Automatic annotation (TrEMBL):
Encoding gene, per UniProt annotation: ku
Biased composition range(s): Basic residues: 275-284, 293-328
SUPFAM superfamilies per the UniProt record, alphabetical: SPOC domain-like
Protein name: Non-homologous end joining protein Ku
Source species of the chain: Nocardioides marinus
GO MF annotations, alphabetized: double-stranded DNA binding
Amino acid sequence: MRAIWKGSVSFGLVNVPVKLYSATESHDVSFRQVHAKDGGRIRYQRICSLDGEEVAYADIAKGYETEDGEMVILTDDDLAELPVTSSREIAVEKFVPSDQIDPLLFEKSYYLEPEKSGAKPYALLRQALQDADRMAVVTVALRQRTTVAVLRVRETEAGDVIVLQTMMWPDEIRVPDFSVEVGEVKDAEVKMAHMLVETLSGDFDASEFSDDYADAVETLVRAKIEGGEVERTPTSTKTSGEVVDLLAALQRSVDAAKKGRGEDTSEAAEEKPAKKAPARKTTAKKAPEKKTATKKAPAKKAPAKKSAAKKTTTKRSTSKKTAAKKAS
């Protein structure tokens, strides 16, 4: 894991230098919106709802919409005046009983790891929270905004770890606008409900549950891949045909290099000699000069190679004879 924040926990006169790690990650199934015909990704333009024109990123500002639909545009100067903080302190405000915190308030969870110099005070805070069965209500600045959070101890396979959980603000918790009308409940019904609870009682084990939907999607996708039902697009980054993609990339590189030197990159010049031998012999005969043919002809042309080989052999034998005469 990679630390996303560094700071210290302060309670009283004690400071515990810590690192913050995200404790959760989403494995939710997500789909891309694509063109059904060829699998191309669907792109969206930034269109102004008033004039219908596309808007560049440089012309996009932040706006606050009021309850009556009016739009207040905020400039960078306006945003610079808002209260922000870069404090690296997790300040403990109070220790409260664990059962006083409504789980509905919890938002995102982070693991706290102590720096080497803070290992002992970290262990003391952890032990104090466990023994008192309390949570520490703290204030912390994340992404330049101060938020309320709690510190609690969580048992893991690696040992007991202090977890920081950010909390929603009270006005972010919705109040249900409905009421449940309860009629007469008979004693026999209540007794039967208690029996059902006892029958289904047990300890919670998260490993007993699985995401059936995600598993089914994975199985479906794997079956389509094995059946060849895959759309190859120019922007594909994950494919099962790495060799084909590599050859295509190399071919494009060769074409680009030839084009830079002014050479012919047509399909006829790139055909394989094994399949087009007759056509290549005819082309070799039409070459105006041997020099030019040697320079421009691909290494695949059998006739050009034989001529070059004969010339090279003649030159080498002539050189050997000359060297022998000089030696004598």
